[in-house]
Design goal:
By secondary structure, this protein is of the alpha/beta class. It is built from twelve helices and seven strands. The strands form two sheets. A five-stranded mixed sheet has the order 1-5-3-4-2. It has a two-stranded antiparallel ribbon with strand order 6-7. A hairpin with a 2-residue loop joins strand 3 and strand 4 (84-89). Helix 4 (133-146) crosses helix 6 (162-170), helix 5 (151-158) crosses helix 6 (162-170) and helix 6 (162-170) packs antiparallel against helix 12. Mean pLDDT is 77; it is low at 1-33 and 233-238.
Length: 291
């Protein structure tokens, strides 16, 4: 799929007209047509590309109270599709308005493709820091899979570096239960990344249980993950050159996976393990980033 260069990575400011000055940069593309109006909430349908799966009810109540007192600081963003308004960005504002019993809401109406809709939903949530790591990972995966984007293109679109996108996507390799804990904030992304260094799902779940039971810090979790990896039967640390062993540990830290250095009389080789196509792409990304 051919994708034209977009202004979306610059954020929602690129969608709202600004008064032009000598220091102002024109960020709106000439083919974007939009207007601001008050529309009926009953005519707005949900956005199937909404990247957020969970909404904090306490935060939603706070937003509703703010809107009731000060009104809407920023309109929602919708597109016209099948004679209805489909929400692009502003899910929390819309939910808060419904909570208040409002019948209408200010909106910007924009011509947007499915790709525009998903991009804008992701960008808005990331800028407002509303997406948990798992929601981010699922949203990036949709950009990659549904719109034939490379990982580099995903990174460019959302304004992140490729390594960051790769690390977030890796979270989807974790068992569903652990993903749920990350999504709820029970364990952090740092804890999750430490668990990804373990190859077996059973080991990841065992370490996750220990994290929650003993309230382990990320550093402690990383330490336990290393010990679990080294206590495997195939690990013969006593026969290995201490310098090579130290280098292996350093490489494991860099790649977040098992690394073996095998020496021979004429040279040797370095083996970097991966556990899925996505994990392989992550490793390749790290290798390319250090060229």
């Amino acid at each position: 799929m051919h994708l034209e260069k977009r202004v979306l990575g610059r954020g929602l400011a690129a969608l709202i007209p600004e008064k032009q000055t000598a220091d102002n940069i024109q960020v709106l593309e000439s083919n974007i047509q939009q207007s601001v109006r008050t529309i009926s909430i009953d005519k707005i349908k949900a956005n199937k590309y909404q990247p957020r799966e969970e909404f904090n009810q306490e935060a939603l109540s706070d937003l509703a109270a703010s809107i009731k007192e000060k009104g809407f600081i920023q309109p929602i963003l919708v597109r016209l599709k099948d004679n209805e308004y489909e929400l692009i960005a502003g899910e929390r504002r819309l939910r808060a308005a419904k909570k208040l019993g409002y019948k209408e809401i200010p909106a910007i109406i924009k011509e947007a493709s499915d790709l525009d809709s998903l991009e804008l939903s992701i960008i808005e949530n990331i800028q407002r820091e509303n997406l948990n790591p798992i929601d981010q990972a699922k949203a990036y995966k949709r950009l990659r899979d549904e719109f034939d984007m490379t990982q580099e293109k995903v990174a460019d679109t959302i304004g992140k570096d490729r390594a960051t996108v790769a690390n977030i996507l890796r979270l989807l390799n974790l068992p569903a239960k652990i993903q749920e804990y990350v999504s709820r904030g029970t364990i952090s992304m740092g804890h999750a990344r430490a668990m990804l260094s373990l190859a077996k799902e059973s080991e990841q779940i065992r370490l996750c249980t220990k994290i929650m039971k003993e309230d382990l810090s990320v550093r402690d979790t990383e330490s336990y993950a290393k010990k679990m990896a080294l206590n495997k039967p195939e690990s013969k640390t006593s026969d290995k050159d201490p310098n090579l062993y130290s280098l292996e540990q350093e490489l494991r830290e860099i790649f977040g996976t098992k690394v073996k250095i095998l020496k021979s009389k004429k040279g040797g080789k370095i083996e970097i393990e991966f556990y899925s196509d996505l994990d392989m792409e992550r490793v390749l990304t790290l290798l390319k980033s250090n060229r």
